[in-house]
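Recall that a protein's primary structure is simply its ordered list of amino acids. Everything else, from secondary elements to tertiary packing, is in principle encoded there. The following example makes that idea concrete.
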Amino acid sequence: MNDFAPIEQLCRDLLLRTAAPERARLLRSIGREIRKSQSDRIAAQRAPEGVAFAPRRPKPDRGGKKGRLRQQKMFRKLRMAKSLKAGANADEAWVGFGGRASRIASIQ
């Protein structure tokens, strides 16, 4: 049994009663909040399930040199607004990766 069914029905009824421009504005703000929460999750190095990302694989010794990239967090550029896009219209809100970032995110 879905405990959220009454709440979902109430929200659906409220959304259907609002005008299309107001619905689009509301869905756009919801999309922005979801994008921000996903960006924060990526910055915290957490998977959607809440577990930590797997650590980077160790690389062979390069004579005592440490790579700068290896010391930084993974996916730091994927979480930027230019890669993690959010949008909405009167019927739906969406959050996703665009362009080359979508290909990188789908592989990972």
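The chain has a mean pLDDT of 78. The first strand starts at residue 84 and ends at 88.
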